[in-house]
Structures are given as C-alpha cells and as structure tokens.
Amino acid sequence: MFSFVENRFRFYGIAAALVVFSLLSPWIFGTNKGIDMTGGIQIEYAVSGDRDAALAKARELALALQGETKVGNTAVVNGTTVYGIAGTDSFIVEAGFTLGEKVTESELQIAKATFTKSLTEKLSAEKSMKITESRYVNIGESFGAYIKKSAYITLTMAIIMIAIYIAYAFRGSIPGMASWPFAVVTGVSLIHDVIVAFGLYVATSYFFPEFKIDTFFLTALLTILGYSINDTIVVMDRIRSNLRDSGGKKMGLSHVIDGAIHDTMRRSLLTSSTVFIVLLAMFFFGPESLKGFTLALLFGTVVGTYSSICIASPLLVDITKKK
Description:
Radius of gyration: 25 Å
Mean pLDDT: 85
Oligomer: single chain
C-alpha cells in the first residue's frame, strides 16, 4: 500500500513550489482585472438581425477605439470585452478605464462618454442590421477598491470560521488527542487551495486576456473553499473514526492516516471527477460571461482534491508529533 505519510515531504515540496509560484504570479504576469476592479463602463446593445455579425463588428470597433481613446497622450482604456447574452439577441461591451497620474476624474468621465458615443454611433450606422443601445453602466474606480477590500476580509473570515468550526466539531471525539490539529491542517489546506487557484488563474489570464479577475472570480474562490472543506472533512472524519473505534494508538497515527486516505480516495476521486466533467461542459458550452468563473472552479477542484489527500491528512503527523 502506497504510504502518503512516508512520502509527505514530496507532496509538501510540490505544494510549496505552487504556492511560491502563485504568490509571485502577479509580478510575473501582471493582473488582468475586470471593470468591477479597475472601473469602466458596460454597455448592452439589442440586435435586430445577425447577432454573430454584430458581435464581430463590435469587437473590431471596440478594439480600435481602445487605442484611440486618450486624455492628451495618455491611453485610458486598458481592455475591452464583447460577449453575447445567452438566450437573447443582445450583447455586452465592457471597457476598462484606468485613472492615470496625469488624468483627472472629470477627464476620465469625458473619455468614457466619448468612447460610448463613438461606439454607439458606428454600430447604429450599420446598414445590414439594427443595433440599439439598451443599457449603460458606469463603474467608478472606488467601487473596485471596495470589492477588493471586501474580498480579502471575506476570504480570511471564511477560512478562520471554518477552522473554528472544525475544532468545535472534533472536540473530545478522540481520547487523549486535542481537536486543534484538525483545525490547523484544514486552515492550511484551504489557504493553499485559494492561493494556488489564484496563481494558476493569473497565469492563464496572461495568455488568454478574456479571463479577468472580477467579482465572478472572487465568488469562485469562495466556492472553492466550500468544495475543498467538504472533501477534507470526509478524510478527517475517517481518521477520527479509525482512531476512536479501531485501536488507533496501537496501530500508530501514520498507519491510521494512510488507511483513512485509501478508504476515502475512491470516493474523493469519483466525486472530483464528476464535478470536473460538469465544469468542463459548462466551460465549453456555457455562457461566455461565466467562463472565467468556471475556469477558476476547474483549478480549485483539482487543487482542492490534491490538498485534501496529500497535504491536510499527512500534516496531522507533523503537527501532533505522534508516531
């Protein structure tokens, strides 16, 4: 039987390398932020005619206007995204605007209005189809700062509260063993999952700019926490059951943990594979606006399964110092 405990330092090394890479990824690749992080505009257009042709034209015009929209010599548009709304004849144009050092807030608002007016006029001038503006949303840069601050607080509090709950749920369940090691390894694995999923997503967004860091991505990170803890708690509960009911002290903690991992591995791999297949179908066939959200969940599913099996459980041995 393969021993995860005896080979745990190899798994720790892989996890440490991924965490370091993920922490450095914003400096290596930069962060491709959505308009709800940087500020920008979102315009919805209704199409009467060939929507695919309208999407192609809108992408062409938005890209051209991205380079043309300036305040003085400073380019203020940091990226544009055009995507259709599933089940409708409408599409969305998003443009991110950056408030540079030499650009005032009033100048930025004028640039947003100019971009919107130019795009709408050029789309409306198309003879082969009728395109009309149906909705306009202006997102300020301060909103992005609020979202980022809220995300840090929410993720931190979620991990802390989950760890506290694990310590409470496991209290007194194993004679002679405290419950706090279960809380610690759970917290470590959750932090690992969030950081690595973030780093992989940042690296991917460098090569595929359509994947942006936005509120959907932050929601995906919170969802990853929920999935990962569900997978981890199954292994932990089996470890607790084996220690309590089948002579864990006599067999040794390392042997009990290896047995618990092997007992639950089939369940973990099958569950993760099922989730992965569903997410893969959503990624290729689902709405374009949710592709970034789905990609982050794909990364989180793989990373969460790895941490539950290869990190959280073996780490109990090093924390408790029991052989």
